Structures are given as C-alpha cells and as structure tokens.
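Bug #77: duplicate submission created two jobs. Keeping one. Sequence:
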Amino acid sequence: MEAIKSKIGKTVTIIFLVIALLIGSVGYIAWYNLFREVPVYYESPEEHFKYGSIGTEASEGIPYWIWLVLPRLFPEKLPKPGGYTSLGFTWEKGQETPIGISKMTIGFPRQGITCAVCHTSTVRETPKDKPLIFLGGPSSKFDSQSYLRFLAACANDPRFTPDYILSEINYVYNLSWFDKLLYRYVIIPQTKKGILRQAAGLAWMDSRPDWGAGRISPFNPGKFRYLEQPLDDTVDNSDMMSIWNQKIKVESGFAYHWDGLETSLVETIQTGAIGDGASPKSINIEGLKRVEEFITELPPPKYPFALNTELVVKGSKIFNNNCASCHAFGGKKTGTVIPVEEIGTDRHRLDMWTQAAADSYNQYAEDYEWDFDYLRKTNGYVAVSLDGLWLRAPYLHNGSVPSLQDLLEKPENRPQVFYRGYDVYNQEKVGFVAEGAEAQKVGFKYDTSLVANGNQGHLYGTDLPGDEKTALIEYLKTL
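Kept job's structure:
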C-alpha cells in the first residue's frame, strides 16, 4: 500500500513539474517574443538624438515591418507620392528609418517617435539642391497630424489583414514560420486595435483647424488623453520650436514652451516624450538625459548664405535700440512671459492651458522616481531669444507669419494666406518660399482667418523706416 501511495505521489509530482515546465516555457516564449527588450545604444550623441529611443516604442510604437510596408500597401492614403517623405519625414541615405524614428526590439522590432522628428530642419537654396540638415531646429515640413491620420486610415481599411500585410512584408524581410504565426494571430490584429484606439482618442482633432506642416497641437492631446481633462473647444495649434543652445537658457532661467508653462528643461524634455507617446512605465529617462546633454551644448546654426556686412553693422545698432531688451541674451525681458494684452498676438494657444491641467500634470508621475513639479498656468507668451532665428520661420507662436520681412509689416499688410512646408529658402525675405506654384503644390495652405491662426500683434519694429528694416533683417540673419 505504501509503495502504491509513493508511486502515486511521484506521478503527481512529475505531472505538476511537467505542467509547471509547460507553463514556464509558454511564459518564457511569450516574454521572449512579445516583451523582451533589447536596448540600442548609439555612441554618437548626434545619432542618439536622431534615432535613439526615448521610450515610445512599447506604448504607442508600431511593429517595424508593418510600419515599413504601410505606404506601399496604402499609397492612396498619403497626401502625395513619396512614401513617408510625403508627410515631411527626412530620410538619410542608408538609414533604416527617417530622422526622428527609432527602431528597437521589444519582443519584436518596433518603431517609435523621437524628439528629432519635430526638431530637425531642412533647407534648400534651390529646388534642385540636396537639403541641408540642421538638428535642433523646428521642422518646417513634418506634418504630424497627417501622419496620425494616415495610420488611422490604414487601420480602418478592410484590407488591413494578416494576408495582405504579410504578403508585402515577405518582399522585404523573411520572417520565420513562428514569427509569421505570431504576426498573423497576435501582432497584426493587436496593431490594428492599437491604431484605432489611438485614433478614437484623437477624434476631437476633426472639429478644429488642421495643424499643417511644421505645426503641432502640443498639449491638447495629453490634456484630453493622459490627464483626462474635460473635452473643451480650445485650439493650441503651434509652430514647432528650436531646442538648441540650451545651456545659456538654463543659466538665464528662461521659461519653456511658447507660453512659459514650464521652467525646468528636464521636465520639458520628459513631457515632450510623454506627448510623443511614452508612458510613465516606458519612458526612457537615461535616453532623455542624453538628449538633454546634446541640446545643451548644440549651437545654433550659422546662416549659410552670403551676408551684407555693412548692413549687418547698421542693423546691430537698430537691434540693440529696438529689440534687445526682449530678445537678446541678457535682455531685461528675454526668456520671461509678456502679458498677451501687451503683445497682442493670437491668444488661443494661451487659453488652451489651464491651471487644472497644470495641477494634473504635476501629479501625473508622482509615484515614480522622476516626476513633474514646475508646470504652471501663465498669462502671456515668452519673449524668446533669437538664436538661429533665420531658420525658425514661419514666425510667431502659431507660425502665422511666413518671413521676417512680413513680420515687420503691420498685420493688415502681412500675408493672409500662404503655404508652409516647402523648404526652399527665400534669402531676401528671410523665411521659406511661401507662395508660387511649387510652394502651393508641396505646401500646406495656411489661412490666417481660421481659429487660432491669427497673425495679429507683435507690432514692434513695424514703424521703422524701410532702410532700417532692411538693415535689421540682415543683422537678424547672423544671430
């Protein structure tokens, strides 16, 4: 009897061990193929800025092979031919992804968004020239809203199926038989659900004017989706900002964002990552520290075209007498918030941000080693320093004025409609070519009569004589 009991006991033990082994094996296989992280390290700070992870792949990244073939599968959903470049991405020769798109294995290869996608500028002297690339500058051509809408249109298409997608992936990459099963039954269906869930969370965009190339809604997405603030009718469409030369700005205590809602560079970078799709669990704090180090020392780019040195000298005196107190490093008001009533510019961006949103964001990550403490509500816009100003067109916080020449005109004489997103440079006006057949063909139509697109205000310098405006503009090229 005892022998039988012992035998039964051993059998039960073996069965439990086999079950545990099977469960463990299944768990390991699931972890290895769906969640295993393989960090990618770029030795060069510049390459890290362009392609390094900031933690967006796990939460809102798309499987790389699916992402890669979407423009080939659904070209009709893009604004024009050219794949992802038609959405304003800049693709360097020999790279797997455009600047601003990371690639990282989390179970399987995934892509993510990085800071560089919005903060990399391109310039051409003529339409035939190869673009000059300037890191840290505001992208004048990346259309993030059209990118999001492209992904949503693909996922909404009935052809977004394993058969259709796997057949195209097979042309560019040979998945193993196991990976094909994983893509067919798990990855592709979940990707579709994830994109549609994201699109549903951004449906409020459709009731507001489009962002357009080189602009973004920087805080409403986070306000509604992550902070769960009540859905309102505010519009915060804003021009992308330059992020170079941060060392002197930190030392000078500058406020961040157009309305100065942040006073910490560290938090500004971290909230940027959250806005790009990182979650509190996935955010790559070490990767963001490398971004911070890079932009802290990154100098503004020098004007690449010819200068009139005589006019530059004359213009420097005009700048010191008329502009320096608000826009020169060391200026009394530079880096501080100027009341919107004084500036007179479109106030929609300012009114979007509330004290309740600031309070909510300051509590958003309090359970983590990193957190937010310095978000606030202000009553105006920051008097920004003008380093690298020549590359920061269009101008004003909402990008409503195409050139410096236009900015020095009274609002009624500024262009009411123009096109943005064309990176050929206008050296005379100091801005990108914003009119004409090619600009219209390539660019996004910007209409200043639409909500939050107003080009009013900032009358400083508009009363200067014409020759002084010309000299001032020449000097501003050198900053």
